[in-house]
Amino acid sequence: MSVPVSKYNVFLIDDDECNLDLLEAILLSDEKRQYAVKKFSNSPTAFKCAKSEKPDFIILDINMPIMNGFEICQNLKSSAETKDIIVMLMTAYNSSFAQYDGLVTYRADCYIAKPFSRETLIRNIENLMMIKEGKLPINRNNLISNFI
To answer: pTM for the whole thing?
Structure first.
């Protein structure tokens, strides 16, 4: 008997089409979960769609034109209607300050630095989905303290 596979709606937001294609390929190769993927290279359009469609999670590049990833994340997390969307910030800025800022100031659920491995991305998504499903407790203080 096969185990039912969960399906999640995910938005990928990055102004680099190659990054979008790579992320999509990684997600679609995950054997544990299925994803309905929408890709966006335009941040205002992505933000508007996220507000109306409320995906399960968003993988969001920080360095975006017009509206950067920090702004999108902060606006989503500040709204009662979208605060529960899981946001994973993704960037080439691999500093403790940027990570702390993303998690504390902008209230992202996860921060992943480029380059990253497929395994790291999938493991982070798995943990975030388990938290969302109530199968894994979250202690934001422990998460944030790793960056202090």
So the answer is: 0.83
pLDDT tens, position by position, 62-95: 888 899 888 999 999 999 999 999 999 888 766 6
| Three-point CA angle 90, 91, 96, nearest 5° | 100
Contacts of 63 by beta carbon, 8 Å cutoff, 6+ apart: 15, 69, 91, 92, 93
**Tens of pLDDT, residues 2-54:** 555 668 999 999 999 999 999 999 999 988 889 999 999 999 999 999 999 99
Structurally, how many domains does the chain consist of?
1
Residue 104 domain-assigned? yes
The domain that holds 21 is classified in CATH as 3.40.50.2300
Host domain of residue 51: 6-145
DSSP string, 67-90: S-HHHHHHHHHHSTTTTTSEEEEE
